[in-house]
Amino acid sequence: MLTNLVKAEFRKTTSTGLWWGIMIPTVLIALGWALGTGAIGKSIMDVVNSSDAEDLTQLLGIDSSQWQVSVFGMARSINIATVFPMIFGGLAISSEISRRTITTTFLTAPNRVSALTAKLLVYLAWGAIFGVAIVASVSIGIVITSDSAALPDATGWVAMAGVGILSSILMTMFGVGIGALMTSPIATTIVLILYMLILENGIQLVLAAQGVPSIIGFLPNGAVNGLTGSVAANLFLSTAGVVPDELNEVIRGIAGALGAFDWWLSGLIFLVWTAIFFLGGWAATQKKDIT
Amino acid sequence: MHDGSGRIVVQGLTKQFGPVTAVQNLSFTVEPGSVTGFLGPNGAGKTTTLRMLLGLVTPTAGTSFINGRPFHQLGNPARVVGAVLEAQGFHPKRTARNHLRVYAAAIGVPDQAADHVLDLVGLGAAGDRKAGGFSLGMKQRLALATALLGDPQVLVLDEPSNGLDPEGIAWLRTFLQAYARQGRTVLISSHLLAEVEQTVDQVVIVSRGQTMYYGSLDQLRGSQRSRVLVQPSDASALVAALQAEGVTGIEQVPDGRLAISGMDAKQVADAALKAGVSVYGIQEERVDLEQLFFQLTNGQYTAAGPNPFAGPQTGPQQSGYYAPPQTGQFPQSGPFPQQGYPPQQYPPGQYPPAQLPPQDYQQYQQQQQPPPGYQQPGQGGYGGGN
Predict the structure, then answer these.
(1) pLDDT band at B334 (very low <50, low <70, confident <90, very high)
(2) Would the N or C end of chain B have less CB density within 10 A of its end CB?
(3) DSSP structure string for B252-265
(4) Nearest CA to CA, how far is B9 from chain A (Å)?
(5) Phi and psi (nearest 5°) for B342?
(6) What b/e readout covers A246-271, taking b as 16+ CB neighbours within 10 angstroms?
(7) Nearest-CA distance from A83 to chain B in Å?
């Protein structure tokens, strides 16, 4: 029974142009950001590794030639690109409610729990599909513009790919929950974009300026950025040799993980946010009168 | 799981939307093998009732069953009941065939079912077109196709004629009757009796969220009465003469004429001649089914008065039931009033209602106060309705 509903939900997503309408900008943004951040990283490292700076780095006792700066660009690019699967998730239920297809969806399912479970499974899969596309685009972009010395090793790449896909899945489900609560596709999209790209960044600036950056790690965007950013920072630090403690915070900031906790804790915090909105949206849809 | 009877049972359904009572203690039964009309003016609670039956709206009180089970216990519900609730449940960018394949997958029927129902509703050639470009009539057909995907035993349609051209309405009529003849159940709602009169065998008439009548259409039709409106030179002399002949259904209407029931115009004229009374005008008036429907439903926006059909009456017992407004417990054995019809239900100032075009009834429904001289309920109604 659930198999049938999953098949139906999957057909819903593939029978309109929405998935590739969102996939195209996802890939372009991921690729573009990876190309750009890779190029920036390369030009910075060219300066750092130049003979002028060599004296300074030797004085500090660090070997900058092995710095895997590309992981910062990867983390940043993944963070930006996962906004798109989040919007894709945001339209999952809100679009059905606004287009009134939810009526037939509920009429053809044994009950709402099974209809929503099928949706959950299909959007988990879509989150993973978008995640794979993002990781692939970011990897291609970063390889093109970075020096090979700045790239992570195979283990590092697997770690980045893993958290990239995980954060895409979580962002998708976060969107599904917000969409189910808002029930309007336009409002959902605007709220998600405004909050994730502008509002929370403002809050983060204020918190950092107030000297309480650790709160950032508890906010949704801060937590999900911490997921990829912490892994990037850890990867960098594990291979960079001796890095002065004062630089740690700077490096986490560069990775987009300022104030964030360890990657697993960040992931857990964002999972809680996702669960709150997803379960809230589920509960609202479960008892909603479809009139 | 379910009993396979094809019977729909609605028991005491009530729905409050905030302060608004959309449906109040509504009860009726729909039997298989016939097309049942679910009739009532706009806002009578028809759509809400159907959505409660289909598990889309949670009732405040009461229960409803299809095949002896609430909707959510039907297992794979679309194999038991198909519903056409609105002609807009489509993604505009999804083709008709893809729309049907989505739900074919959900129901667990093969993809060929999508093509089959497309042909069935006459959309075979439009299957690859996007639903957003469909006309309202085509959307109605696609909604019907969706309802038919699971080959259900019970079909529920909410105002399915909306947007259909005359040809489409004729087609739908034939289709639904053929469907019912296979022993299946068809429940079709409408705010116009005339629209479904030729389609339905049974009717459930609701107004103000309550059941006003439920039974066969033929019995409702059999209750149509005629009366004679006469303007005599001497009303009291004519009344005396008629009473001497044993006629009791006499009433004075607001414009001064006498309304006599139980006689035809010729008999009244003969009686007047015998009594030496001049007749200045005489007119025979039939109350047709549509007017009866108005009478049953037009109290929706006026102060709640006693249901003229609910009180104790004399006359032959019939199997169609009229419900009192507040109890709604079925079956309610209120004998049908063979003599006369309710005085207060005619449109104020527009008597006789036969002259009232159907499209105007919405207007007079909302009439709050009857004009002066308009006969109130319980004031010696025509034929003793109370």
Answers:
(1) very low
(2) N
(3) E-TTS-EEEESS-H
(4) 18
(5) -70, 135
(6) eeeeebbbbbbbbbbbbbeebbebbb
(7) 24
User: B188: burial class by Cβ within 10 Å (0-12, 13-18, 19+)?
Assistant: buried
CA pseudo-torsion sign B76, B78, B81, B86: positive
Beta carbons of B106 and A16 less than 8 Å apart: no
Residue A228 structure tokens: 């990829």
In chain A, how long is the greatest CA-to-CA distance?
74
Q: Which amino acid is at B368?
A: Q
d(CA A82, CA A26): 8
The type of residue at A70 is S
> Does residue B357 register a pLDDT over 90?
no
Q: What is the mean pLDDT of residues A7-22?
A: 95
User: Is B89 in contact with A100 (Cβ distance < 8 A)?
Assistant: yes
Token output for A147:
């020096």
Q: In angstroms, rounded to a whole number, what is the distance separating the alpha carbons of residues B119 and B345?
A: 46
pLDDT at position B173 = 92
* B54, B98, B101: residue with CB nearest A107: B54
How far apart are alpha carbons B192 and A112 in whole angstroms? 34
Question: Tokens standing for B346?
Answer: 């005619």
CB pair distance less than 8 Å for B99 and A15? yes
**What is the total residue count of chain A?**
291
In the chain, the amino acid numbered A235 is L
Band (pLDDT 50/70/90 cuts) for residue B338 is very low
Tell me the three state secondary structure of residue B375: coil
pTM metric for this prediction: 0.79
Q: What is the pLDDT at residue A125?
A: 97
